[in-house]
Structure formats: structure tokens, C-alpha cells
Amino acid sequence: MANQIDRLFQILIEQGGSDLHLTEGYPPKMRIHGGVSAIEGEDVLTKESIGKLLTEICEPAAFDKFMEEGDLDFAYEMNETSRFRCNYLKQQFGLGAIFRLIPTDIATLEQLGIPDVVKKFADIRAGLVLVTGPTGSGKSTTLAALIDYINVNYNKHIITVEEPIEFVHNNKQCVITQREIPTQCASFADGLRASLREDAEIVLVGEMRDLETISLALTSAETGMLVFGTLHTNNAVKTIDRIIDVFPSDQQSQVRTMLSASIRGVLAQLLMKRCDKPGRVAVNEIMFSTPAVSAIIREGKTQKLNDVITAGAEHGMQFMDDAIWEKLQSGIVTPEEAYMKAIDKSRFRNFLPQESAGLANSSGA
Q1: Which of 150, 207, 214 is nearest to 176 (CA)?
Q2: CATH number at residue 27
Q3: Dist. CA 97–CA 87, nearest whole Å
Q4: CB 3.0 to 4.6 Å from 133: which of 116, 137, 279, 339, for a disulfide?
Q5: 338, 348 in Cβ contact below 8 A?
Q6: What percent of the chain is helix, strand and coil (3-state, nearest 5)?
Q7: CA angle, 287 then 289 then 292, to 5°
Q8: CA Rg, the chain, in Å?
Q9: Are residues 88 and 123 in the same domain?
Q10: 229 pairs with which residues across the strands?
């Protein structure tokens, strides 16, 4: 292999892992089906050995910038079937890095087990759709599947602004322009602002992490563009609250009005460890905009959204706990896993084994 680090990547692939962790002072580790463990037979990484591995696949100028600033994100393509999202960091004991394996074949929504109703987001002409979930919950994979569905079934210009570019989309029925931060544009906000002049019907914002980007996303959605964005929130209520809370208090009333008019939906996602076979399964909360949803957001009574989602099955909505309940009833996940991921834990407590239920009660959960 061309680089020594490729050997570790190959082990990750062969053993079905998702992430490779390198930390100075520790042996290489990998994440498989949600758990992290050391790779057997590998030596502890020294300052010299980890430095050699990291510089093999990184441009010298980028590595110098990393050594100066302490963080670096980029993508590395080992071969035509293996691509990685790379994050370099400085940590307590020296250097570190995490590599996420990115499938080069984009899975379909059906293959991912995403509810079919999610395809309705592709029919929307303008507005804001938020795909949310904690780190490592498969947001990027689900968004890539949705963009690929649009690419196959529609004729549009799609711009993605990512840090880094993960899934590479080839033009099918659509024209897809992918821009990477910081090489093709300086920031998410700059990429989003530029997309308004680039004849795009759809723009995907890799992460809506600051006030400027969120404000531009709302404006773009209001002016007739379909904006897909991601946030690190677990459900629809927290997602709406996060968007509004980014703004100063004197602007929040206006933002609630803007968001109530432009929001088209929230797709929240969690990954749960399966018990019926190795692997993990996605569970989703789905909210579509309705007059009731818009009124609740405008009035700032977001806690009422859960009731609307629970009662909104006819509109294709799905509450997160109901999705978890379905996986539990189907024997796909354990009661412990369902309890840990649930919003209303009391609904699942009675299904816990006696010893686990006692621990949950003593902790006040």
C-alpha cells in the first residue's frame, strides 16, 4: 500500500468498523457497531509514529496550519472504493485523529430503512428542511440518500457546502455542484450567500453552527430556495428551540415569525444498537409543517409540537418514542437500548430487566 496508514484503514474496512481513532500514547482503536476497542497486535503510538501516519495523507501546508491552530478537517480517498472524513486534533497527550469511513456507493433511503414518507421533502419547492441528530447518528448518510433521490427523479441545480465533502455525487438528472470549506469557499455562510447568485434551486448546508449561517438559511428559504441543513439536536422541539435561541432576545420574536413561515420539516435521527443481528438501526422523528406547527412556532409554545407530531400520522409525522417503541416491539433492540434513547423514559421503564429497572429508579430517570 502507498501509505502505512492505509494498512489501518484496511483493517477497519475488513472488520466492519466505522471509525478509526489514533491518539498519541495509546494503540490505534476502532469503532464497530457503536463500541470502541483497540486493534489487536498494534503498538502504542509515539509522537514520531503518529506524526508519520498523519503527514502521509495530508498536504504539508494544511498540516502546518493544523500544528498552528490545533484542528483540521479534510477528506482522503484511499482508493476508488474507500474514502474517509479526517479530523486532526491536538489533545492532552499530544496529537490525535479520527477517521470516518464514507461509503463511495450512496445507499438509498430504502436501504437505510428511512420511512418512505421522507421522500416528500424532495417535492418541496422552497423552504427549510432540517436533518438533525447527535454526532455519528448518520445525518450525512441520510442526507446523501435524499439528495441522490432528488438527483435521480428531478431536474434541478443542487449546491452543497460541506466541511469536508463526504459523499461525492455524480450528475444524474440534476446538476450538482459540491463546494468544500475552506478550499472552495471560506465558510458555510459565504457558500450559502454565493448560492443565491448561482442559479440553484436546492442548497445543502453541511452544518448550521452560527447565527450568520442560520440567518442566511432562513433568508434563502424565504426567497424561494429549498435549503437542507443539519443541527446536532435530538428531536423537533430542541431543533426549533436551538434555531431561535441562536439569535439575540430582541430578535427572537421576528425569527419565530420567519421560521414559522419558512420551515417545511424536521427529520431527527438516532442510531440504536441492534440485538437481532450485528449492526445498528436508524430511528427517526418526522415533523412536517402544518398550520398548527406554524402557529406553535410563531407563538413560542414549542413543547406543544410533541402533541402535534404524535397526532400527525395522517400527515406522515412520527414521534421519536413511537419509532423506538416499534423497534422494541419488533425485537430489533433491547429494552435497555430503548430506555436509554427514549425521550419519555417512563414509557419504557417497565420493560427493563429487574436489576436495570432498579438502577433507573434509583437514578431518578
Answers
A1: 150
A2: 3.30.450.90
A3: 5
A4: 137
A5: yes
A6: 40, 25, 35
A7: 105
A8: 22
A9: no
A10: 130, 205
Sign of the dihedral through C-alpha 129, 342, 278, 29: positive
Instruction: Check residue 360 and give its pLDDT.
Output: 55
Rounded to an integer, the average pLDDT of 141-161 is 97
Q: Can you tell me the distance from the alpha carbon of 267 to that of 89, in angstroms, rounded to the nearest whole number? A: 30
Strand arrangement of the beta sheet that strand 71-79 belongs to: 35-38, 29-32, 19-23, 94-103, 82-91, 71-79
Angle at the Cα of 173 from the Cα atoms of 168 and 175, rounded to 5 degrees: 55
For residue 63, CA distances in Å to 59, 94, 179 come to: 6, 15, 21
> Could you tell me if residue 361 is inside a domain?
no
Side by side, the strands of the sheet bearing 263-273 are: 175-180, 157-162, 202-205, 226-231, 127-132, 263-273, 280-288
Whether residues 183 and 225 fall in one domain: yes
Please compute the mean of the pLDDT values over residues 67-89 and round it to a whole number: 92
With respect to residue 359, please indicate whether it lies within any of the assigned structural domains.
no
Residues 139 and 235 in one domain: yes
What is the pLDDT, as a whole number, of residue 355? 55
Task: Find out whether 302 and 245 touch, Cβ atoms under 8 Å.
Answer: no
- Say whether both 234 and 276 belong to one domain: yes
The set of cell numbers assigned to 227 is 435549503
Helix axes 291-299, 252-262, angle to 10 degrees: 170
29, 1 Cβ separation under 8 angstroms: no
Q: What's the whole-model pTM score? A: 0.84
| Nearest C-alpha neighbor of 88 from the set 103, 99, 77, 100 | 99
d(CA 132, CA 139): 6
The closest of 205, 174, 175, 170 to 191, measured between CA atoms, is 205
- Note the pLDDT tens digit of each residue in 119-144: 999 999 999 999 999 988 999 999 99
159 CB neighbour count, 10 Å cutoff: 22
Q: How far apart are CA 240 and CA 238, in angstroms?
A: 6
